[in-house]
Design a protein that fits this description.
Elements (H helix, E strand, L loop, with lengths): L5 H20 L4 E2 L29 E7 L7 E7 L7 E6 L2 E9 L1 E3 L2 E2 L2 E2 L2 E7 L7 E6 L6 E6 L10 E6 L6 H12 L6 E4 L15 H14 L4 E3 L19 H6 L15 E5 L2 E5 L11 H9 L10 E5 L16 H13 L4 E4 L5 E4 L2 E2 L13 E2 L5 E5 L20 E5 L3 E7 L4 E8 L9 E6 L14
Parallel strand pairs: 1-23, 12-13, 13-14, 16-17, 17-18, 18-22
Antiparallel strand pairs: 2-3, 3-9, 4-5, 4-10, 6-9, 7-8, 10-11, 12-24, 15-16, 19-22, 19-23, 20-21, 24-25, 25-26
This protein binds 2-acetamido-2-deoxy-beta-D-glucopyranose (5 copies) and fe (ii) ion.
Length: 469
């Protein structure tokens, strides 16, 4: 016979109240009942395993790759040598044809930041790769050679399945390490990462200690040396420190991370686009001018009409500062950019907008707020099937900790929000369907804490939402 103690009955009642609360009492979507203990995030110390310097004389470290052209047939390989420039050559070969070793020669850069001097930062673009092919590549000299591999994407086309991981505001704490580990072990197997900005958080250290840029790059090498991460700049990339004599914004970032911005006729590495498989990815900069007549504005105005949804059905935008955010952090920081660009996003039927900045998770309904004209009073977001879903995923686990103070009541347009660390996966199946899932760090690797099927806005613009009132 089973007997319940009064305390366990109390607990069950308590739990059901919590559950009912979350389902019945909120005005908008769902605020998760999962309340994470507000712990302090702690940076991994400099002698942590994840920061280890590879053995060997002047061995290449901080190896990372990103897409190197507009269509996915080139890769930018980057690495740092600590003591001397060493070899600028990448030796590479395809798995299909390992007899033919090819070489590409890159360039070396260094920079100073206050009293920090960088190592020798190498960037080398490998071009004319075959699609859908595994390549091995080697960097370094004689006895400190290091070998890695990557797989090129399939040819650009409308029904090509492809799986993107999504991370933001990662930093280098123990929680950051858990986020990356969960991404790596997710059975959905991300093939490339869409990174929504705020990489190392070096600027939280005295004098923006750029050693923390080096440690960060060593930490994430285990993923980004093998699959491209698509970079967005966040506020922690600005590194504007006139008090240190550092007056040129984005100095560490632009030296360390090269992106293929010229391939999309951009004039700066902060806004650009790439095609990858069935996706067209537009990266925007919250911290570069975006008002009318600015370079970014002109570029985006010309860029959006170029997207051919018969070729790349999925239109994805990355930006750092969210436009729709119902946390009491960075509240309305994205508003001015929203006012400038949201009408274009609706006109061009963007599928999904990914942002970071707020250290928590939130997913919106399909909504827009484009009807407002100052005088007409129509200033509330309304349901709009031509509008993107907005995801805030600044929950990588950086040193600044979790954002857990939410505006109440939850706005109607907010479909799901939760203050937990995690990552997401955007798993494109074909031109009409993509499986999206968000995975909180506290669950097992395969658990989807939030998920939905995305229906493509061009090919299948059917309402996916279940609960808009
Ligand atoms: C830079 O200056 C700070 C103090 O201003 C000092 O603690 C640090 O050791 C210096 N670093 C180098 C590389 O000289
Ligand atoms: C980081 O995560 C990896 C993989 O789970 C683990 O091997 C390593 O020990 C972790 N390091 C720290 C400092 O937590
Ligand atoms: C759009 O892409 C399709 C498929 O690749 C192609 O047939 C068509 O010509 C393209 N349209 C334009 C306007 O370039
Ligand atoms: C949450 O944010 C609001 C608005 O900024 C503030 O008034 C309130 O004190 C905050 N609550 C907590 C618990 O920090
Ligand atoms: C697209 O993918 C979805 C989900 O896997 C599937 O249900 C649908 O049948 C596919 N469409 C086509 C035309 O294959
Ligand atoms: Fe940020």
């Amino acid at each position: 016979m089973i007997s319940f103690s009064s305390s366990s009955i109390c607990f069950i009642i308590f739990l059901s109240i919590l559950l009912f609360d979350s389902v019945l009492l909120c005005n908008g979507g769902k605020t998760s009942i999962y309340v994470r203990k507000a712990e302090k995030t702690v940076e991994m110390p400099l002698n942590s395993d994840v920061f280890q310097i590879p053995p060997g004389c002047n061995a290449p470290q901080q190896v990372h790759i990103t897409q190197g052209d507009h269509v996915g047939k080139a890769v930018i390989v980057s690495w740092v040598t600590p003591d001397e420039p060493g070899s600028k050559t990448v030796v590479y070969w395809s798995e299909k044809n390992c007899e033919v070793k090819k070489k590409a020669v890159g360039k070396v850069y260094t920079y100073k930041f206050y009293n920090y001097t960088s190592g020798f930062i190498h960037h080398c673009t490998i071009k004319n790769l075959e699609y859908d092919t595994k390549y091995y590549y080697v960097v370094g000299d004689r006895n400190s050679k290091r070998k890695f591999w990557f797989t090129t994407p399939p040819p650009v086309g409308p029904d090509v399945p492809y799986t993107f991981g999504i991370m933001g505001d990662l930093g280098q704490t123990y929680d950051s390490n858990i986020t990356l580990t969960h991404y790596e072990r997710n059975p959905r197997n991300g093939q490339a990462v869409l990174f929504v900005g705020d990489l190392s958080y070096a600027d939280n250290h005295p004098n923006h200690d750029n050693v923390r840029w080096d440690t960060w790059a060593r930490f994430v090498e285990r993923s980004v040396a093998y699959q491209p991460w698509i970079w967005t700049t966040g506020n922690h990339e600005i590194d504007f420190a006139p008090e240190l004599g550092e007056k040129k914004p984005f100095k560490p970032f632009t030296h360390r991370y090269h992106v293929p911005y010229r391939a999309s006729q951009s004039t700066a590495p902060f806004w650009y686009s790439i095609k990858r498989a069935s996706a067209y990815i537009i990266v925007l900069s919250s911290y570069s001018a975006y008002g009318k007549y600015t370079p970014q504005y002109q570029w985006l105005e010309e860029e959006l009409p170029k997207v051919n949804r018969s070729e790349t059905p999925w239109l994805i935008v990355l930006v750092h500062s969210p436009w729709y955010n119902s946390y009491n952090y960075h509240y309305m920081e994205g508003e001015t950019m929203r006012v400038m660009y949201e009408p274009w996003f609706v006109e061009h039927k963007v599928d999904i907008v990914l942002a970071g900045h707020v250290h928590a998770y939130e997913r919106s309904e399909r909504i827009s707020n484009v009807a407002y004209t100052i005088v007409n009073g129509k200033c509330r977001p309304t349901k709009d099937q031509s509008a993107p879903v907005y995801i805030t995923i600044g929950d990588g686990g950086n040193i600044e900790g979790l954002a857990n103070n939410m505006t109440e009541p939850q706005p109607e347009y907010s479909a799901y929000r939760e203050a937990s660390f995690g990552h997401a996966i955007f798993d494109i199946k074909n031109r009409t369907h993509a499986r999206y899932s968000w995975h909180r760090n506290h669950d097992g690797y395969a658990v989807e804490a939030d998920s939905m099927w995305f229906f493509n806005r061009f090919w299948h613009p059917v309402d996916e939402s279940s609960q808009w009132g």
